[in-house]
Amino acid sequence: MQTISANGYAVFFGEKEYDSLNHFIIQNKYSNLFILVDSNTNEHCLLRFLSFLTTDKNIEIIEIEAGENEKNINTCVEIWTILTDLGADRKTLLINIGGGVITDIGGFVASTFKRGIDFINIPTTLLAMVDASIGGKNGVDLGNLKNQIGVINSPKLVLVDSEYLATLPQNEMRSGLAEMLKHGLIYDAGYWSQFKDLNQVDFADLDSLIHRSIAIKNEIVMQDPTENGIRKALNFGHTLGHAIESYFLENPEKKPLLHGEAIAVGMILESHLSWQKGLLQENDYYEIKSVINHVFEPVIFEEKDLKPILNLLIHDKKNEYGKIQFTLLDGIGKTKINQEIDNEMITASFFDYKN
């Protein structure tokens, strides 16, 4: 699988590229190595990674609990403290092995410790491979608000080894598929078409699908690294999706949603908004809704849920001058950014989703 050149780093693919990782570590003469894992990747992924790692440097393992609840500033303080106590310095390398929580928080910790140390991402979930580990966004949640604190800072290297996916439950695989569907909808109608009949998708060719998804995200990010323009296209489905994810995370009456599960709902809702705005044909909207609903179980919303979800939209990071900004589809494969939408249209989208 061909290496992808990103913004100051490379994305390597496959088992043979551990040689490139080892060469990189030797070439940069790091003082020591710290590996950040969660309880899941420590159990299921760390031994595989260490079997390929060849170094005479001292290695320390830092483990945190698994889950979105750990993605907060308190966890960062704990990691910064461990790094300090165990002698990390400016020439330390932090290797993040895990899903989106680990790559997000690990990148943020590394970017801020001693004003910045190098870090590498080894994504172990489909979501992290095609989205979270790519593009340089790192950060943590503020309470139940997603990704409110963070920086844009690129890893030194990303290594995508799809063998780690064998450790994932099916719901985690589906979660990652949501971002792959998004990449087709916003940028590549042909890629989207590959998923239109999921019964015909050859998942034995998953590596090439992952490669194309990463390439799409990278092509967008390379044009706009700091998200002042076209990179906002990647937020399709995320304005409402993040609000739904946050609401279900904080509400004890609700079962928390995986990121991809919330984004899947967000993509249906925001496709309906695109149709209401005259940007998307009716048949395209129903095709999107059908494909996504074929993969993801419907999420149940009650009438009382709508107002708090709408209230959470004011915290969306794309907002400007107090106005909520959506990224909508301009047909399949294209987007329009900075679209203002009123609450009546959002309510209509929720009504259509429930029916």
TrEMBL record:
The keyword Transmembrane helix does not apply. GO terms for molecular function: 3-dehydroquinate synthase activity. Residues 176-319 form the 3-dehydroquinate synthase C-terminal domain. Its cofactor is Co(2+); NAD(+). InterPro entries: Dehydroquinate_synthase, DHQ_synth_AroB, DHQ_synth_fam, DHQS/DOIS_N, DHQS_C. Gene3D superfamilies: 3.40.50.1970, Dehydroquinate synthase-like - alpha domain (1.20.1090.10). Keywords: Cobalt, Lyase, Metal-binding, NAD, Nucleotide-binding, Zinc. Residues 62-174 form the 3-dehydroquinate synthase N-terminal domain. It is an enzyme of class 4 (lyase). CDD domains: DHQS. Its EC number is 4.2.3.4. It holds the Pfam family DHQ_synthase. Catalyzes the conversion of 3-deoxy-D-arabino-heptulosonate 7-phosphate (DAHP) to dehydroquinate (DHQ). This is 3-dehydroquinate synthase.
